[in-house]
Design goal:
It is a single chain. By secondary structure, the protein is of the alpha+beta class. It has a domain of about 140 residues: Uridine Diphospho-n-acetylenolpyruvylglucosamine Reductase, domain 2. About 50% of the residues lie in helices and about 10% in strands. Strands 1-2-8-5-3 form a five-stranded mixed beta sheet, sandwiched between helices. β6 and β7 form a beta hairpin. α7 runs parallel beside α17 and α10 crosses α12. It is globular and about 60 Å long. Bound molecules: protoporphyrin IX containing FE (HEM). The site of protoporphyrin IX containing FE has 22 residues, from α12 and α17. Belongs to the cytochrome P450 family. InterPro entries: Cyt_P450, Cyt_P450_CS, Cyt_P450_E_grp-I, Cyt_P450_sf, Cytochrome_P450_Monoox. Its cofactor is heme.
Length: about 475
């Protein structure tokens, strides 16, 4: 160990609760309030486990975010939390992707994928987003109560199939959606009980993984022949470096699957919370409606969503600040290192937290209140506002997601008023999925809004005072 590290390690021990298992149980049971508690009790850096050999370190605030997210050789990307088997078709789907790549390989693949997310390219996706959202708005005409989160998940999934894979055939869309759904349903069980027998979750997951690979393989073949395709997958199939390097078929499959899974659920959760927070804040909702009311044609809508600093954009940013869909991120130390003057041994898991950073009173006034208007007057640094993370692994789809959310919200809020049912329990989990759904009454937009009282953890996370 270098001398300076040894000196620091004897001088400092990271504060934190002693009992690892109990603390981590509390974390898994109530991840958001647990982070608030340890931050309140111990400060910006908290160790869980033995003082001189912590198993987990929680790091809060912009300075530590910067240290962790920029030094990607020291604080490496980690697959430690991913317990899926590696050496079969499941591994090919879950491990071959940007978010688990390191160093030069990550840089090269990111360079090859970047053009698919360029803002010029994103314009090609607008028509699909508009059409899919209008389709769901039409379907709702005959319904009065929906589970908003489920509906948003179905919508973002359909948008992903169109924009990522260019699928148009309804049967293909349904089939791929069904297999991905079944795979993600069994995957938790595979990680808990990785036993392979016929009809076990592992057996089922592997079967789904093989079917998905077959579908994606035939799509690759198809995309190689398509000259004018404008979807993300086509752009990846055609991408190559200056020296001619292109992505192999198995790399393409890994990237495509992850884009699909990473992209739609996060966006669905962000959309659900934005609608929820707006409907609970009548003044903010009125301002959004005033802004979008005059938009008539598709062209009006696309021109509006391309502009920045609209009140709708501020509302989305504020919702991502308060309830970021990736509320926490993890890295692992490659070797012994320093973090905020503390010695951290190699192989320690380090959690950074958009959720806590976004609620620091020194960065955001009235941090627990939903105040979209604050975005007219603040410009936080890349480490103070991190719903899409920062540094080399920052979300590649952030601009796509913002664009998608603006289009979806414009169409749905113009047409429908959403009212949450009285005393509904609303509790987000670590990835901001409302664990018991989000039942909403929908009715034609009549420009009259009222806050409704709800139950659940959300009341500890949002300051409702006006
Ligand atoms: C509101 C929606 C979204 C949120 C909040 C979000 C959030 C994030 C965050 C926090 C990370 C970095 C994780 C880390 O630090 O380890 C990330 C990475 C990533 N996201 Fe997103 N994301 C969203 C939408 C999307 C969409 C629409 C796509 C693609 C279509 C996408 C694709 C990716 C990929 C490929 C990575 C890995 C990047 C890399 O490691 O270089 N995301 N996202």
């Amino acid at each position: 160990m270098p001398d300076d590290l040894a000196a620091n390690s004897t001088n400092f021990t990271i504060p934190g609760p002693q009992r690892t298992t109990l603390s981590m149980l509390r974390f898994y049971r109530a991840p958001l309030t647990f982070q608030q508690c340890i931050h309140h009790d111990y400060g910006n850096i908290v160790a869980i486990g033995q003082r001189n050999r912590p198993r987990y370190v929680f790091a809060f605030g912009p300075e530590l975010n910067r240290e962790i997210l920029t030094s990607s050789d020291t604080f490496e990307i980690s697959s430690a939390l991913l317990k899926v088997p590696k050496h079969n078709e499941l591994g090919q789907l879950f491990y071959h992707n940007l978010s688990l790549m390191k160093g030069e390989q990550h840089k090269q693949h990111r360079r090859l994928m970047q053009p698919a997310f360029h803002h010029q390219q994103i314009r090609y996706y607008e028509a699909s987003i508009l059409n899919e959202t209008k389709h769901i708005a039409k379907e709702w005409e005959h319904r009065s109560i929906i589970d908003l989160n489920l509906e948003m998940k179905n919508l973002t999934q359909r948008i992903a199939m169109k924009t990522l894979f260019g699928l148009t055939d309804e049967k293909q869309i349904e089939a791929l959606g069904k297999h991905v759904h079944q795979l993600t349903q069994s995957i938790l069980w595979v990680t808990l009980v990785p036993i392979y027998f016929p009809f076990t979750p592992y057996w089922r997951a592997l079967r789904q993984a093989r079917i998905i690979q077959t579908i994606l393989n035939s799509l690759i073949e198809h995309k190689r022949k398509e000259v004018k395709a404008t979807d993300v997958f086509a752009s990846l199939v055609q991408a190559h470096d200056e020296d001619g390097t292109a992505l192999t078929d198995s790399e393409l499959i890994g990237h495509a699957f992850t884009l699909f899974v990473a992209g739609h659920e996060t966006t669905a959760n962000a959309l659900s919370w934005t609608i929820f927070l707006l409907q609970q804040h009548p003044q903010a909702m009125t301002r959004v409606i005033e802004e979008i009311d005059g938009l008539q044609t598709d062209e009006d809508i696309t021109t509006y969503v391309r502009s920045t600093s609209t009140f709708l954009e501020h509302a989305i940013k504020e919702s991502l600040r308060l309830l970021p869909p990736a509320s926490i991120g993890v890295r692992v130390t490659h070797s012994a290192c320093q973090l905020s003057n503390y010695h951290i041994p190699a192989n320690t898991q380090i959690f950074y937290s958009p959720f806590i950073t976004h609620r620091l009173p020194e960065l955001y006034e009235d941090p627990h209140r939903f105040k979209p208007e604050r975005w007219g007057g603040i410009k936080p640094s890349p480490y103070e506002y991190i719903p899409f993370s920062a540094g080399p692994h920052m979300c590649i789809g952030w601009s796509f997601a913002m664009h998608e959310m603006k289009i979806v919200l414009t169409i749905l809020l113009k047409r429908y008023a959403f009212t949450i049912q009285q005393q509904t329990p609303i509790t987000p989990n670590l990835m901001m999925r409302p664990v018991k759904g989000m039942p909403m009454r929908i009715s034609p937009q009549r420009y009259s809004f009222k806050r409704v009282s709800v139950k659940g953890t959300i009341n500890q996370l949002i300051d409702w005072s006006t």
